[in-house]
Amino acid sequence: MEPTTMRRDARRNRERLIAEAKRLFAERGIDAPLDELASRAEVGAGTLYRHFPSRDALIRALYDDGVAELQTHAADILGAETGWAGVERWLETLSGWLAERPYVPGVLRRVGELEPGHSPGMEFQSLLDGIVERAQAEGSLRPEVTAVDLAVLVDMLGSLGQYGGAYLPYWRRQLTIVLDGLRARPDATPLPGAAQDFAAFHDMSHRKRPAD
Fold first, then answer.
1. Is residue 170 packed enough to be buried (19+ CB in 10 Å), middle (13-18) or exposed (0-12)?
2. Are residues 37 and 81 in the same domain?
3. Using one digit for the tens of pLDDT, what is the confidence trace for 180-203?
4. CA-closest candidate to residue 91, choices 195, 180, 167
5. What is the pTM of this model?
6. pLDDT of res. 5
7. Would residue 210 count as lying in a domain?
8. Radius of gyration for the alpha carbons in the chain, expressed in angstroms and rounded
9. Are residues 164 and 194 located together in one domain of the fold?
10. Which residues, other chains included, contact 211 with Cβ-Cβ below 8 Å and sequence gap of 6+?
């Protein structure tokens, strides 16, 4: 077999393993048997472990793959015609993405344990801050709402994925309720307390230990 063909086959096998890992972990969690993953991907155990020498290596690959997927949505969200449309796109796009991937919280926690200093998710803070500032400047978003509030709401809506694919046609009901609660209006109930710092929220979502 020619080297180019070997590289193409290796790339195809890796992509198949990643795709099947997402399906398997969505069904059975991130501790699902890896021999079942190899079987689903129609590769041998040797091929699996050549690409991912350990479960943790596979989980890290899923984490990086997820961050890359979310980055592809940034331009669309930033290009929204209004600040409020950016808020809507952020919540709908990311909540839907997360609901379809119920394994993600487990991946976040495992990567947080493995690499406490690995924080690519922090790059989304500036994106979220910009969305919030733009929507508040136009008067469409409640003035007390922060980037962390929107991040938490994504987690809340995305957690509906725990009910499985059967619930996915219905989650936009909850999305609409949440969006109505975010709209600026004079009779809105004041939000209690101060919002959490974004870095603290990021570490909490990855279940990292606070610094001593």
1. exposed
2. no
3. 999 999 988 888 888 888 888 778
4. 180
5. 0.79
6. 56
7. no
8. 20
9. yes
10. none
Same domain, 103 and 8: no
Check residue 3 and give its pLDDT. 53
Distance (Å) of CA 54 to CA 45, 50, 59, 104, 157: 12, 9, 9, 18, 31
The reported pLDDT for the residue numbered 70 is 86
If one counts the domains in the chain, the total is 2
- Euclidean distance between CA atoms 66 and 94, whole angstroms: 11
Both 11 and 70 in one domain: the answer is: no
Query: C-alpha angle with apex 121: 117 to 123, nearest 5 degrees?
Result: 105
CATH of the domain at 113: 1.10.357
DSSP type of residue 32: S
Please give the C-alpha separations between residue 134 and each of 7, 8, 143, 158, 171, in angstroms, as whole numbers. Answer: 46, 45, 11, 24, 26
User: 24 lies in which domain range?
Assistant: 1-53
CB neighbours (10 Å) of residue 68?
10
Residue 1 pLDDT grade (very low, low, confident, very high; cuts 50, 70, 90)? very low
Phi, psi of 141 (to 5 degrees): -110, 140
Three-state SS string over 49-66 comes to HHHCCCHHHHHHHHHHHH
Task: Look at residues 147, 140, 174, 149 and name the one whose alpha carbon lies nearest to residue 160.
Answer: 174
Over residues 152-176, the pLDDT tens digits come to 999 999 998 888 777 888 888 999 9
